[in-house]
């Protein structure tokens, strides 16, 4: 028997239950991982709430963790029992002591990277990698806007932007978060609770505005983001923390200056094992060099049994950086 989080109906954090289950053996091309640290991602709240509805109920939750391979299924040759791995995009069920994962979603974990660091940085770091290096290749000296800059993805983006020599303008909702984003390397910070985002972007860029906006907040910042873009700029809408953007009249892109919009996801950029390995190597190199430092405060490490409390805190906007679930407690 093992423990996991599951939910039988979509809804608020209350639907999360901590239950016993009997892990099945890994199927063909799968590995079984004993999780040591589990990454909490905002996307998990979309699945739990039904915004991204799970295929069946009851369902497991979570797609990211780091741990040790305990069994391998048929056809797996590149990993073996005892290997340390980190995985993302695993299919729902990572909020668990044990999870069966497609072997091509798991990367071998370099010795210098702890389970906690891996689970706190893998999915979020791969996301920053594809956003800043592939969706739009950010250039040295380039000024751009990145929302939720003190969040899990956001703090990694601040550091990656600095390492590239680019100037990230980050939005945050409190002075403490502003300080944290600045420490992480944001070039400038806008407090979205008391400043007009587009007006501040114009001011910071002497009226030029920016060529690209990375927006994970969604509904609440859609117009601010478009208003922050210069002519023919690119709006990268990659999340829905405040709700999804719906009902858009494409004419607005013309009115705001012949803008471009993309709605990317990690699944569209890391599509096979080779792409997973090459993106992970970029991330692991940034972690190993110290260019990116990810530290999870004790107040954001939760026993697996307390996933409900972890979701409440994440959705309250009071977290900074990444949060983790730790199995076995
Ligand atoms: P975060 O730690 O960034 O938490 C979300 C943050 O969004 C909050 O801390 C808050 O920061 C901000 N926010 C703004 N408005 C709201 C609101 N109304 N309710 C709640 N939060 C709000 O989460 P993650 O690092 O896990 O993920 C960041 C974003 O990136 C998410 O939207 C996620 O869906 C997206 N994502 C997308 C991926 C993709 O490939 N498309 C992959 C991974 C993540 P503040 O209070 O400072 O405004």
TrEMBL record:
It comes from the Bacteria. It catalyses: 2 a quinone + NADPH + H(+) = 2 a 1,4-benzosemiquinone + NADP(+). GO terms for molecular function: mRNA 3'-UTR AU-rich region binding; NADPH binding; quinone reductase (NADPH) activity; zinc ion binding. InterPro entries: ADH-like_C, ADH-like_N, ER, GroES-like_sf, NAD(P)-bd_dom_sf, QOR-like, Quin_OxRdtase/zeta-crystal_CS. Keywords: NADP, Oxidoreductase. It holds the Pfam family ADH_N. PROSITE patterns: QOR_ZETA_CRYSTAL. CDD domains: QOR2. Its EC number is 1.6.5.5. PANTHER family: QUINONE OXIDOREDUCTASE PIG3-RELATED, QUINONE OXIDOREDUCTASE-RELATED. NCBIfam families: PRK10754.1 (NF008024). This is NADPH:quinone reductase.
């Amino acid at each position: 028997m093992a423990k996991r989080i599951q939910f039988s109906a979509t809804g608020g954090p209350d639907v999360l239950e901590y239950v016993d289950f009997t892990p099945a053996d890994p199927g063909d091309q799968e590995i079984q991982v004993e999780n040591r640290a589990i990454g909490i991602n905002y996307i998990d709240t979309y699945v739990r709430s039904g915004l991204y509805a799970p295929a069946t109920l009851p369902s497991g939750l979570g797609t990211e963790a780091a741990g040790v391979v305990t069994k391998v299924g048929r056809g797996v040759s590149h990993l073996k029992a005892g290997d340390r791995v980190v995985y993302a995009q695993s299919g729902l069920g990572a909020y668990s002591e044990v999870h069966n994962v497609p072997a091509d979603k798991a990367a071998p974990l370099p010795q210098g990277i702890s389970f906690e660091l891996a689970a706190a940085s893998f999915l979020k770091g791969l996301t920053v990698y594809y956003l800043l290096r592939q969706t739009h290749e950010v250039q040295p000296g380039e000024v751009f806007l990145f929302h939720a800059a003190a969040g899990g993805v956001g703090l990694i983006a601040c550091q990656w932007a600095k390492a590239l020599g680019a100037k990230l303008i980050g939005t945050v909702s409190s002075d403490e978060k502003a300080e944290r984003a600045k420490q992480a390397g944001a070039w400038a910070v806008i407090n979205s609770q008391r400043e007009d985002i587009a007006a501040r972007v114009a001011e910071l860029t002497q009226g030029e505005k920016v060529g690209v906006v990375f927006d994970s907040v969604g509904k609440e910042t859609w117009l601010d983001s478009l208003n922050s873009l210069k002519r023919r700029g690119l709006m990268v809408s990659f999340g829905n923390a405040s709700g999804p953007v719906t009902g858009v009249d494409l004419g607005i892109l013309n009115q705001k200056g012949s803008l471009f919009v993309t709605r990317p996801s990690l699944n569209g950029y890391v599509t096979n094992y080779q792409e997973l390995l090459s993106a992970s190597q970029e991330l692991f190199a940034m972690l190993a060099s110290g260019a990116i430092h990810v530290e999870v405060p004790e107040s954001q490490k939760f026993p697996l049994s307390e996933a409900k409390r972890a979701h409440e805190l994440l959705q309250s906007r009071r977290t900074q950086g990444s949060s983790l679930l730790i199995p076995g407690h």
